[in-house]
Amino acid sequence: MISLQHRSIAHFDLDCFFVSVECRDDNSLKGKPLLVGGISDRGVVAACSYEARRYGIHSAMPMKTALKLCPHAIVRKGDPEKYSKLSREVTEIIANHAPLYEKSSIDEFYLDLTGMDKFFGSMKWTAELRQEIMRETQLPISFGLASNKMISKVATNEAKPNGQMEIFFGEEKSFLAPMPVEKLPMVGKETAAQLRRRGVETIRTLSEVPITLLEAWLGKNGISLWNKANGLDDSPVIPYHEQKSISTENTFHTDTIDMKFMHAELVRMTEKIAFELRQQNKLTGCVTVKIRYSDFETVTKQMTIPYSSSDHILLEKVKELFHKLYDRRLLVRLIGVRFSHLVHGNHQISLFDDTQEMISLYQAIDNIKNRFGWQYLMKGTNTIPPGKKHEVKAPGIVPYPKVR
Q: Start and end of every UmuC domain (predicted)?
């Protein structure tokens, strides 16, 4: 059983982040149905304004469908590099003030302010930080302040747009009680439908269902939902470290200057750790390539990029870094790839350039990799040991090796 601790946790959320950035840079867009995403007929919506949501539009919807729902909507392609830069600016402001914070996504943050009431008053301090962020970035941001992460996130959602809310210790259950079950984090349409079929429509009713019965209905997820419905959450604020990374490297059996082989290895390694990113629901904001020559001299080069977890975007950056770094006169002993500056997030950050087909392709690829292993589906360029004859396959996605 989770015990409720008297903590002080703030949750910050940049309101309609991509849309807000576009409206900040073009005042004529304010108050209008605005869609940010792919501008082609096969593109998808990465974000939409509150005005557009009134027409039933939501993120990840095909742009063509969105424009049928709201033909007079304004479409902007979006600028992931600009959004990533602003996300980092907000992170720096928070890092300069908060004693402990977690960057949970490109536009969300948790701050642990436990104990600050003795000195400043957590609500006053948090409200002043919000004002500073808005003053420095000219972007709207909302926050919720409560005794745990879950309640603070729900409070933020209730405070939007561009608001703030405090839920006092001991009032968590009464705050949640009248809300529909969908208001709880991680309760999707399917789970909500299961609960409603059993007569559970509000969080109050959910909190009164015996925990053993919820477990029978929903498995372990039922236990988690019971705790949430009762306002209980002891998950910690995890300190944010830019150094956190995912990496891989390969020392060759034979030192080489074979460019086809090294390119194939870059593809293999990039796809491997990009898949790990997506598995962990993370995005990277920095790519590093490492080369060790036959004389053991080791060189690295890194590049800050718009947050992404897409193979085709990351591979382009990896190859660009490799060509800037590589000295063609020397044999190579080792190459490595590292993704750092990680934040929680999903494929949405890449929707500006992706078509529906591209998104479906990534989903299909990851489903196969989840089932059989990441190495069973790779780009058409295979890795072949130095010294062996190269066979360059046609571009595209091919199984490697064959799945029996």
A: 9-188
- pLDDT for position 376: 53
User: What CATH number belongs to 245-399?
Assistant: 3.30.1490.100
158-201 pLDDT, tens digit each: 999 999 999 999 999 999 999 999 999 989 889 999 999 999 99
DSSP three-state, residue 49? coil
Q: Among residues 302, 248, 300, 304, which one has the least CA distance to residue 277?
A: 248
Distance CA 145, CA 10 (A): 4
DSSP 242: T
What distance in Å separates the CA atoms of residue 115 and residue 125, rounded to the nearest whole number?
12
Q: Where in the chain are the domains?
A: 1-170, 245-399
Per the annotation, does 107 bind a ligand? yes
User: Was 13 annotated as part of a binding site?
Assistant: yes
391 is catalytic: no
For residue 309, the model assigns a pLDDT of 87
Reported CATH class of domain 1-170: alpha beta
Q: What is the CA 303 to chain-centroid distance, rounded?
A: 19
List the structure tokens of 361.
């392709």
Are 1-170 and 245-399 the same fold in CATH? Answer: no
> In this predicted model, what pLDDT tens digit does every residue of 269-324 receive, in sequence order?
999 999 888 888 888 999 999 999 988 889 999 999 988 888 889 999 999 999 99
pLDDT at 78: 85
Provide CB contacts within 8 A for 303, sequence distance 6+: 286, 287, 288, 317, 320, 321
- What is the percentage of the chain residues whose pLDDT exceeds 90? 64
Can you tell me the distance from the alpha carbon of 50 to that of 32, in angstroms, rounded to the nearest whole number?
9
Which of 22, 108, 166, 172 is the catalytic position? 108
What confidence category does residue 127 fall into, taking pLDDT thresholds of 50, 70 and 90? very high
User: In the chain, pLDDT over 70 holds for what percent of residues?
Assistant: 83
Region at 115 (left for phi over 0; alpha for psi -120 to 50; beta for the rest) = left
Tell me the residue type at 338: R
Q: How far apart are CA 351 and CA 137, in angstroms?
A: 24
Start-end of H helices in 138-258? 149-159, 172-176, 189-197, 203-208, 211-218, 220-229
Instruction: Give the number of other Cβ atoms within 10 Å of residue 168's Cβ.
Output: 11
86 and 21 Cβ atoms separated by less than 8 Å: yes
